[in-house]
Automatic annotation (TrEMBL), chains A, B:
Keywords: Glycosyltransferase, Ligase, Transferase. It comes from Dioscorea alata (Purple yam). Its EC number is 6.3.4.21. This is Nicotinate phosphoribosyltransferase family protein. The lineage of its organism: Eukaryota, Viridiplantae, Streptophyta, Embryophyta, Tracheophyta. It comes from the Eukaryota. It is an enzyme of class 6 (ligase). The keyword Ligase applies.
Length: 551, 551
């Protein structure tokens, strides 16, 4: 257990994650194993998924740290034991003594690094240990990896469509699936390449940059500028005080109405909106960003914003920009940009034309793509519902399959070949080509010698005989690393910081060959097995039932 | 604050739900309100949704208790204040003193009872209080109600298709959106009419019945019956001990092979599967339920199960049944039923023919409906992914809109008429007809006199002039009740137990006119406003911008 202490990974981030957060059948099985004297048999399970989500050809692996935290803290409380006893009243006392004794000191976890690009069938995690204990981990591990990987992948896809230069803001807390859904969404969208979140609790817990200004309700809550009491606004450098900021704003609004190039765009603007903007600017003169679509974007919101921004400019402050939350975002962003540029030109305010335009309102991959095609002037996107609920595919479908017990390989057959498991304790490698792109992932039996740089490797499709190719790797990366050594003498990989995981994710995505990543008809990345593993799979398969008697 | 103590609702069930679990802009707005001296202005917000989910015409409201718990415990911790100060470094100290002082003692919450059937536009909750405080509640309230109502509705729809006589089991933890997603799913599926969950932590926290037996991995972990050591199985009444249970099972398997009516169905069964079943039955002789599809349902799983069940029967135990997790569930359930009935007949074992058949494997509303159409013999359904992720619609889209501030009604207009908010502090009623069905919901201004039994009421569509009807209610139910009276002298509704909420939900669903509930082309339930409210909405609308100046 020193591993856990040494790593500073005691204390789970999510207090809901306890050893009881698992399916009841893991306990009934544990009891049956215990009764049969099988509970200490050493089992190897693979955690993997069968299909990439969102019609794409890649997935980002996330959730590992939370799995490691769970096992580092794995210990039943006495009240949990009492509860289980009430649920399993016919089970013997000795079993509950056994449960009491369980920790994960004899479990080993090998995993691909969090934030890596991953593919179907390749184990994301290999978990070894006493069969009864490892099965207790099945449900929480799958739970922790499933949504984390799904939403990270979703975020990375949004980043791909939006492009590197845009700011992406996660606004999903209110539409997320519960409080923890919101917390996870903020964390994993950040890993997937988002820049900031609106979720204050996630900002605090994970150190993610926070963003947010005001809503429509703020604007609606104001009646008229007469309500606004601004008791003197100091200039940015503190050298002077503007005693009547409202009058200064009004004078700018009048000036704007006189500008030739803006003529006809607006007349009388909404005065309660103006009051709201003045109030917000007085509170945040250094960071004035206004939601401009409560009444009418071009006839009221944008001119009101500009009048306030120009008044702030007189005092040495630089306004941040606007947010659009409805309507034709492409058109409105272009019109707003023209308006800003005209002001920069007419009044000679440097930078006014490049004011940040943020867009929100039910955005997703498709709408971002459509905006790109139409042409737009949006600098930042606030994305919520579709991002955090993973609307187009709400689950990844990870599985956790027994691949070996007591050194005996196990295979799970199925009429559906995509559901056949790949047996044996395995090592997995990513082979890179001359141009630096990953070419293929290959799984091999544990005792096989690893692929070598410059030597050709036969990569076979696990199930289809005709699909095979020789690859000469320029670089070989072993994918599964030891994140929890248990009683083995292996070195333990450190759990990287959130920002390191995020950097890995971004680097890994950039490293992929572009045709795997495109939205339309991406090329599948190849996942293969070694010739030896191929032969062994098919030996087991042919001699299927009962597999055990083959050993 | 005595309200909270009296109700025993201190201590939120979910430790993630803190006052910081909200969007940053609620804090920046609070600061702007505070700077403008507006923070104590009394605001009224409605929480409602705009469209029923899943292509249906009803929704079940859930999540209220968690909202009330949040406000009962609403208090910033000093470290949360410090964090906010670091995020808003230019804000004045006085603001943080104000945040420190906030609790919800001056907030009032009126809500429809949890577990009620509800409809678009009608407020689920009306929240009144100082504008700065009520806005802080927006994000968590929407978060807590959105998924809760969505998954409860989804569960109720699964119940509707499955029929009252079936047992419904929620198996979603591993595919839920994070740990808390899994906890919420278990709670709200139970409210929506499910009978039990596999989630042990939810069983403990909420007192939901638990179910679970074993997985494929359990079966795969056995090699052969020689492995099985059953050290004497006592008979059910304790009067005798079977020294060789394995031999007893084997003798039954031989007998089954001789049965004329079962001839040709199976030959040699899988021996490692048999070993797993014997081990499981030895651990749970009173509750033997076997997963029979690891190898081949009819050629191995069902005969193996029956041999073990018959051996248990010799010792006075009654087996529970089987679970099917793949293949053609309709066909396999019918074949298994025939097998069980044949055994009951041939060996005279009472009840063997009505053994419980449970089905799982990616079930959803559509597959349940298809099974019904094909004809099946399934008694219980285990449902996971599609249920808990709300796959067909992953968000409800609740909103929280300002309808009044300082006694001034507010309306939010939009080019999209479905997005126009219904202004004013309102009372809402459900009018019932002669046959006991709800006929229409009607919203009225607070000072209007309520609809009366036996007197005709003009019910108007809020936006379409031609849509109106007179209704003579036989019963009038006021929908919004006081769940948090704040400083008012109103009586506080008790928060009912989980089982009471579930009972209300089931009763409410049964009470609806069937054409609103059917899956195909359901009739929309009517939601209306009073004549006075209609006139007022349209008065505000015509005189739109700026609305404030109309008052």
């Amino acid at each position: 257990m020193e591993n856990g202490d040494a790593a500073g990974i005691r204390g789970a981030t999510n207090p809901m994650v306890t050893p009881l957060l698992t399916d009841l059948y893991q306990f009934t099985m544990a009891y049956a194993y215990w009764k049969a004297g099988k509970h200490l048999e050493r089992a190897v399970f693979d955690l993997y998924f069968r299909k990439n989500p969102f019609g794409g050809e890649y997935t980002v692996f996330a959730g590992l740290e939370e799995c490691i935290r769970l096992i580092a803290n794995f210990k039943f409380k006495e009240e949990e034991i009492s509860f289980l006893r009430s649920v399993m009243p016919t089970s013997e006392d000795g079993f509950f003594d056994y449960l009491r004794s369980i920790n994960c000191s004899d479990v080993e976890v090998y995993a691909i690094s969090e934030g890596s690009v991953v593919f179907p069938k390749v184990p994301l995690m290999r978990v070894e240990g006493p069969v009864a204990v490892v099965q207790l981990l099945e449900t929480p591990f799958v739970n922790l990896v499933n949504y984390a990987s799904l939403v990270t992948t979703n975020a990375s896809r949004h980043r791909f469509v939006a492009g590197k230069s845009k700011t992406l803001l996660e606004f999903g807390l209110r539409r997320a699936q519960g409080p923890d859904g919101g917390m996870s969404a903020s964390k994993y969208c950040y890993i997937g390449g988002f820049d900031a979140t609106s979720n204050a609790a996630a900002g605090r817990l994970f150190g993610i940059p926070l963003r947010g200004t005001h809503s429509h309700a703020f604007v609606s809550s104001f009646m008229s500028p007469d309500q606004v009491v601004v008791s003197g606004l100091s200039s940015q450098d503190g050298s002077s005080t503007c005693e009547d900021f409202v009058a200064l704003v009004r004078s700018w609004l009048s000036k704007l109405q006189m500008v030739e190039s803006l003529r006809g765009i607006f007349g009388e603007t909404n005065q309660s909106e103006l009051a709201a903007f003045i109030s917000y600017a007085s509170a945040f003169p250094n960071n004035f960003l206004a939601l401009v679509d409560t009444y009418d974007v071009m006839r009221s919101g944008v001119p009101n914003f500009c009048a306030v921004a120009l008044a702030l400019n007189d005092l040495g402050y630089k306004a941040s920009g606007i947010r659009l939350d409805s309507g034709d975002l492409a058109y409105l962003s272009v019109e707003a940009r023209k308006f800003f540029r005209a002001i920069e030109k007419v009044f000679g305010v440097p930078g006014f034309g490049t004011m940040v335009i943020t867009a929100s309102n039910d955005l997703n991959e498709e709408t971002l793509d459509a905006l790109n095609k139409q042409g737009h002037e949006v600098d930042a996107f606030g994305i919520g519902t579709y991002l955090v609920t993973c609307y187009t595919q709400a689950a990844l479908g990870c599985v956790f399959k027994l691949v070996e017990i007591n050194n005996q390989p196990r295979i799970k057959l199925s009429e559906d070949v995509t559901k056949v498991s790949i047996p044996c304790k395995k090592r997995c490698y990513r082979l890179y080509g001359r141009e630096g792109y990953p070419l293929v992932d290959i799984m091999a039996r544990e005792n096989e010698s690893p692929p070598k740089v410059g030597e050709r490797v036969l990569c076979r499709h696990p199930f289809i005989e005709s699909k095979r190719a020789y690859v000469v790797p320029q670089h070989v990366e072993e994918l599964l690393k030891c994140y929890w050594p248990g009683n083995s003498s292996k070195a333990r990989e450190e759990l990287p910081s959130l920002n390191k995981i995020r950097a890995r994710c971004i680097q890994q995505l950039e490293q992929m060959r572009p045709d795997h990543m495109r939205r339309l008809n991406p090329t599948p990345y190849k996942v293969s097995v070694s010739a030896k593993l191929y032969d062994f799979i098919h030996y087991l398969w042919l001699n299927e039932a009962p597999v055990g008697e083959l050993q």
